[in-house]
Amino acid sequence: MLAVFIFIYIGITLAIGFWASKRIKTTKDFTLAGKSLPSALVGVTIFATWFGAEIIMGVPGRFVEDGMMGIITDQFGNVLCLCLVAFFYARRLYQMNIITLGDFFKIRYHASLELATSIIIVITYFFWIAAQFVALAYLFQSVLGTSIATGIILGATIVVIYTYIGGMWAVTLTDLMQSIFIVIGLVVVLATILDKTGGIAPLFANKPKTFYNFLPKSGLYNWTDYIAMWMVFGIGAIPAQEIYQRVFSAKSAKAGVQGVFLSALLLFTITAIPLIIGLGAAYLHPELMGSDSGQNLIPSMISKYASLPVQMLFFGALISAILSTSSGAMLSPATIIGENLLKPYIPNITDKRLLLYTRISVIVVAFICCFLAFNNTNIHGLVVASSVLLMVCLFAPLTFGLFWKKASIFGAWISIFAGGLVWFFCNYFQTRIDPTIYGTLSSCLGMVIGSILRPDRIKIERVS
Fold first, then answer.
1. CA 171 to chain CA centroid, nearest Å
2. What are the b/e assignments for 50-84, b being 16+ CB within 10 Å?
């Protein structure tokens, strides 16, 4: 019965994608939903894209083991990033009337930087999407009994179909449906768990004081590790295409900014629910923490001990979270491939042909992500890997380019190479201070020094 329900749910999702495809007439319809989304839909689709597999299948296990320190990166770092984007980045970039961040680097710096930064952004998405495919594989293994490899292929096929046909319209409409299902499903599961545990108080009883520590222990290395946890998403995700693609899809700059604030609120409140569910699962069945580092803690408990209606709601919510994240994440690199890696190098390309190439890019991205998923089944590790390159290579050129009129093309190149190379060598030699800190600081320093040493000959006005 559960398997039948899942297939029906997937069928409804695909049907929405086919219905949304009727609204796709141009490339802009496919990539930006015709720039017509209100703030509520912008917020919901950002939330649905960021409320991914790791929130339900990665973070709760670490919260059970490490307490507050285990959720700095995902629970608080995400919210920090979205607030920074809403306050400082969203309006300025919207007013440039662009489609991708690659467009920004072309306008602000040079076409060569458009190419380089677009390649970096596309590469980072491979890891994030691969994480969602792994999560779907775990889900199908729990419910349908399929192998991990079969689950990866099945999940990728589903996501590709409705992303290919419906683009941003399909992603937005399915995100709305999936977000509603996420909230309903998680609330029902939470109520069921708390009924069995006798409330929320027993879940926090007898926890050591370190469980509630929000700040690290004293010492340089403890603090640098702590700062790095905040930076992974708090700064690392600021140059993420999927945020701005939704901002650019808004009907106005104000709607885009308000949508980002709404997504931050939704993420902060709703992501707390799986954390409590995870505590309840570990409280009721601590033996489940021993497998997969707690990655399958909640799904295993639900499939083994919950009633069928609760299973249907939970797995429906989990499917919703993973599908919405996968489709939104897959559309972003496909858009960059079409707009920044193909369009500038194909003379006189028609919009119809560009739309076709962008759709084909969805399939290409899926193939690469499947390969990565086959070779790495650590969900949280894949997600963290997806943000590192953005942070150490692109955060500084984006930020200085927006807010410092003297930021130059040479400075941007030095920033990218300095950040990437310093991070690579620090990671290779396993420096005690987190390599992302060295990489990000080197990128910012390279931006300043390079811009001073070789300023642009043509004055570039500050983006406003």
1. 14
2. bbbbbbbbbbbbbbbeebebbbbbbbbbbbbbbbb
Q: Does residue 447 sit within a domain?
A: no
3-state SS, residue 51: coil
DSSP at 430 = T
Residue 461 within a domain: no
Answer whether 147's CB lies under 8 Å from 314's CB: no
CB-based contact 166:17 (threshold 8 Å): yes
Closest CA to 330 of 75, 6, 17: 17
Q: Give 353-410 as a DSSP string.
A: HHHHHHHHHHHHHHHHHHHHHHH---HHHHHHHHHHHIIIIIHHHHHHHHH-TT--HH
Name the DSSP letter for residue 296.
T
Which tokens sit at 267?
A: 């993420």
Could you give the 3-state DSSP secondary structure of residue 250? strand
CB atoms within 10 A of CB 11: 11
Total of domains in the chain = 1
Q: 147-160 as b/e, with b when 16 or more CB fall inside 10 Å? A: ebeebbbbbbebbb
pLDDT along the chain (464 residues), means of 10: 77 81 83 90 90 78 88 90 96 95 95 94 85 80 81 88 83 83 86 90 88 90 92 89 93 96 94 90 80 66 78 78 80 92 91 92 91 70 68 95 95 96 92 94 97 81 48
Record the pTM.
Answer: 0.87
Cβ pair 439, 422 in contact under 8 A: yes
Q: Could you tell me the CATH number of the domain that includes residue 117?
A: 1.20.1730.10
Give me the domain span that covers residue 357. 2-378
Retrieve residue 376's tokens: 């790495």
> Crossing angle of helices 148-197/2-21, nearest 10°?
110
The answer as to whether 402 is a domain residue is no
Spatial contact of 273 and 187, defined as CB atoms under 8 Å apart: yes
- Alpha-carbon distance of 255 to 247, in angstroms, equals 8
Do 255 and 42 form a contact (C-beta atoms < 8 A)? yes
Residue 362 within any structural domain of the chain: yes
In degrees, rounded to 5, the angle at the alpha carbon of residue 124 between the alpha carbons of residues 405 and 349 is: 75
